[in-house]
Amino acid sequence: MEESSKASIVNRLLALKRKSGKSYSQIAEETGLTNVYVGQLLRRQAQLKPDTAPKLLAALPDLPDDLLQEMMRPPLRSYDPHLIQDPTIYRLNEAVMHFGESIKEIINEDFGDGIMSAIDSYCSVDKIKGADGKERAVITFDGKYLPHTEQHLSSCPSCLFIGHHVGPQVEPAAESNPLNSLIYDTVKLTTLCC
Q1: Among 8, 77, 78, 94, the one annotated catalytic
Q2: What is the pLDDT of residue 178?
Q3: What local confidence, expressed as pLDDT, does residue 156 receive?
Q4: Collapsing DSSP states into helix, strand and coil, what is residue 128?
Q5: 114 three-class SS
Q6: Which residues are CB-contacts of 23 (< 8 A; sequence separation ≥ 6)?
Q7: Measured between alpha carbons, how far is 13 from 44 in angstroms, rounded to an integer?
Q8: Cβ neighbours of residue 83 closer than 8 Å, sequence gap 6 or more
């Protein structure tokens, strides 16, 4: 999908949300989703699943069938690089940069050598009152831990599939099969990466 087409669809979806008068959190409550995921759906950054479609339709009854069908297609996940100029997004980016090294070290201490997934991940925004009675924003990222993989040849399916082996390799005769030289070059390349 082209960016202009995506922008047009997103504009229609956001206009529909405004017309409903509902907040992301209200739609989230009605659909059983997180409020950020509702935002991602309406911005075509996430795919609407068939089981959730009736719930979203109940929350946004004016949602036309063409938009509903479009939301159920895998989206082009992208973002406008100028978003960083928005103060809220800039500040979030700055916060991650500021706390990032400590967060990384704590993940490594508590889990091991790995990362937090951004795909198998939940995100929500909540409003609470602090000890001083003032409103505070709570942003939660709840992501699956993904350990980095030690790359053993015996566990590398693609290496085994293309016949990767340890030891001297003899270049196959290209005339017997034109793909032989391509496979041989791939095997040499995977020697470096598997």
Answers
A1: 94
A2: 54
A3: 82
A4: strand
A5: strand
A6: 35
A7: 9
A8: 89
Residue type, 158: S
Which two three-digit tokens encode residue 51?
């089981």
What is the pLDDT, as a whole number, of residue 154?
Answer: 82
For residues 48 and 68, the answer to whether their CB atoms sit within 8 Å is yes
Closest to 37 measured CA to CA, from 190, 145, 141:
141
The residues pairing with 145 across neighbouring beta strands, listed in sequence order, are 116
Q: Which of 91, 105, 136, 158 is catalytic?
A: 91
H or E element at residue 106: helix 87-110
Is 20 a known active-site residue? no
Look up the pTM and report it: 0.75
10-residue stretch averages of pLDDT, the chain, 194 residues long: 78 97 97 97 96 97 96 91 92 95 96 95 96 96 95 81 57 53 49 45
The one catalytic residue in 23, 78, 117, 121 is: 117
Give the CA-trace dihedral at 81, 82, 86, 90, to 10 degrees: 40
